UniProtKB/TrEMBL annotation:
Protein name: M20_dimer domain-containing protein
UniProt keyword Cytoplasm, yes or no: no
UniProt cross-references to SUPFAM superfamilies, sorted A to Z: Zn-dependent exopeptidases
PANTHER family: BETA-ALA-HIS DIPEPTIDASE (PTHR43270), CARNOSINE DIPEPTIDASE 2, ISOFORM A (PTHR43270:SF4)
Annotated GO biological process: proteolysis
């Protein structure tokens, strides 16, 4: 007896060319969020996704996330030129069945700059298929994964199969520039758009290898600090005063060296308090992962890995 997934798989296989052409359309939009001259392209990419979701039956709205100061010039300090709105966030809803769990899918349509251009063997904004691989800016991060979800939903709808979850999409245009304003928007939406969300899927990551799909449920975090170390209030000659004066650079080096040891272990007191230890079942699953350290090292062009 054919299952729902069997029917959908056949349907999707027959529409592969359609789905690749859709990705080609989206990749062709140079939505580079770091470059103010491409702001309209970011908006265009968001609108493209919004139209696609609306055609699938989603309720689609665009939420504002505040404003940002624009700067110009290539010398510090940069000159502020004005204040403009940040690109909006797509909030899309499909299904309100209280008996089903609700899945929130996150993604971003903006991409990194393509410079230096000479490193590209193809036009980064013209999707190209070579030896079974697709090349183009945003194919993996993050336009391809977003469309993967849309295509799966398309399969459910076209095959008249019931989707087992309510779906929410949250798609932004600032994922490559720090997601400015998103944190505040999430807090603002906690009692409406996000109220009934049970699970979150961040479609913005990679496989462990080139062959085996995987679900990622944990990533390293990041936090930024600004550190200022002061010394003498005047410039001192190193030949006359070197060795006698406590130098801020040496203090800064000592500070940085106290954070992480040579093996990559964090040495900040109590920073790991509250971090959940891996369960026995997880450790056993890690042992069976389809992961090869030498292949991974080769893919990222490094020879130095922590054990």
């Amino acid at each position: 007896m054919r299952t729902c997934l069997d029917v959908m798989s056949d349907f999707i296989d027959k529409r592969t060319d359609i789905y690749v052409n859709r990705l080609k359309e989206l990749v062709a939009i140079p939505s580079i969020s770091e470059d103010p001259s491409h702001r309209l392209d970011v908006l265009k990419a968001l609108r493209w996704c919004g139209i696609r979701l609306k055609n699938q039956g989603f309720e689609v709205c665009y939420r504002k996330v505040g404003k940002e100061i624009m700067y110009e010039g290539d010398q510090l300090p940069l000159k502020p030129t004005g204040i403009v709105p940040l690109t909006p966030v797509i909030c899309a809803t499909f299904g309100h069945d209280p008996t089903k769990p609700t899945l929130l899918i996150y993604g971003h349509v903006d991409v990194k700059p393509v410079s230096p251009q000479e490193y590209w063997k193809v036009d980064p904004f013209d999707l190209t298929v070579l030896d079974g691989f697709m090349y183009g800016r945003g194919v993996a991060d993050d336009k391809g994964p977003i469309l993967g979800w849309m295509n799966a939903i398309d399969g459910f709808i076209q095959c008249k199969q019931e989707i087992p979850v309510n779906i929410r999409f949250l798609i932004e245009g600032g994922g490559e520039t720090g997601s400015e304003g998103l944190r505040e928007l999430l807090h603002e939406m906690r009692n409406d758009f996000l109220k009934d969300v049970d699970y979150v899927a961040i479609s913005d990551n990679y496989w462990l290898n080139m062959n085996t799909p995987c679900l990622t449920y944990g990533l390293r975090g990041v936090i930024y600090f600004h550190v200022f170390v002061d010394g003498s209030e005047r410039d001192l000659h190193s030949g006359s005063h070197g060795g006698a004066v406590q130098e801020p650079l040496a203090d800064l080096q000592a500070l940085m060296n106290s954070l992480v040891d040579f093996n990559g272990d964090i040495k900040v007191p109590r920073i790991l308090d509250g971090v959940r230890e891996p369960e026995v079942g997880e450790l056993k699953r890690f042992e069976t992962l389809d992961f090869d350290a030498s292949t991974y090292s080769s893919q990222i062009n490094t020879k130095a890995l922590h054990s």
